[in-house]
Amino acid sequence: MTETRLRTYTHLTGYGLATLFIMILATQNFRYGFYDLFYLACTLAALTIAGMGYTTLARRQQLRAPGHLFIMAALNGLILVALFWLQEADISYWCLPVILLNLLILPLRQGLALSLLVTVVLTAFLLAREPLTDTLLIAFAAVILASTGALYIWHYDHMAQSAEDLAITDPVTGAHNARFLDETLQKEISRCGVTGHPLSVITLAMDYLEETKDLHGQNGLTTFYRAATQHLFGVIRAGDSLYTLSDGKFFLILPFTPEEGVRVIAERIRRSIAERDWPVVGRVTISLGCTTRTVNDTLADSLRKRTDEALKEAQKRSQDSIWFAEGDLNGA
Ligand SMILES: Nc1nc2c(ncn2[C@@H]2O[C@H](COP(=O)(O)OP(=O)(O)OP(=O)(O)O)[C@@H](O)[C@H]2O)c(=O)[nH]1
Which residues form a coiled coil (predicted)? Predict the structure, then answer.
């Protein structure tokens, strides 16, 4: 299930349960003749039903739907105004589920800020009217609810972020993985198609891979891959992205980089790798295949194939070299 869909279900459940709870309150107050509280509950229910409608309408943008903040601010505001207007201490108990609803519907910071605001105003109201022990009891319940809810949501957000990072990161090098490459490259190509900015890519691989493996073992290679990744992150500019492919190759996506630019950065990378003394493996050279997108390149696969061929050509000609593959400008 995607995060967006999960949020949609969570929001619908939150608003749905709140509506049910408020409708029960409305019915009870109507039965006992507390019409002010009945009207208040009906208005609150209208807001939570609006929340359900908004959740359904904005279901594709649940992660950044700003309307929830307005709905929840109105809901919280209405309860606080009613608290002072009606001078009805029973309304203070309505604030407790609202604190949880804030945290469930809104991003953590917004939800927590709104819940703390409600807690402070509620405590001030109770201090002026109710015995100190009752006030402390309700304020304490509100703080416990807000902090436990916030902790739980923070923990969930943290876990979701870690799972997402793991899914797109190579465990050995810490760079992005091949799965994420296809996705990002396709998006980048589509963006270039619209804006017309140049896009270049590079595939690079270590020379004498088998010999190095025989000499230093897989651990030696892994140490080099890790160090090379950190080094490449330092060479490329912000906006470029680096990927580790399964067969010991690296891939670079270089947005806003024309043919002359990719030749410059490829040469810079080649030289900087050859000049260093690497841990465990010592002196190492790499070969690089590069290409620049043409208007006929609409698929990630075609750019990847062309850089792979360019890399093979570079390795065939000599080690420690670069080959640039021209794209087809005439036919698709
Ligand atoms: N994508 C990318 N391109 C680079 C990088 N370094 C150089 N280039 C390309 O090579 C061209 C010439 O780079 P440089 O020789 O560093 O000259 P520069 O004018 O200082 O480069 P910029 O100010 O980065 O444009 C740049 O305009 C880029 O197209 C890099 O780290 N990433």
Answer: none
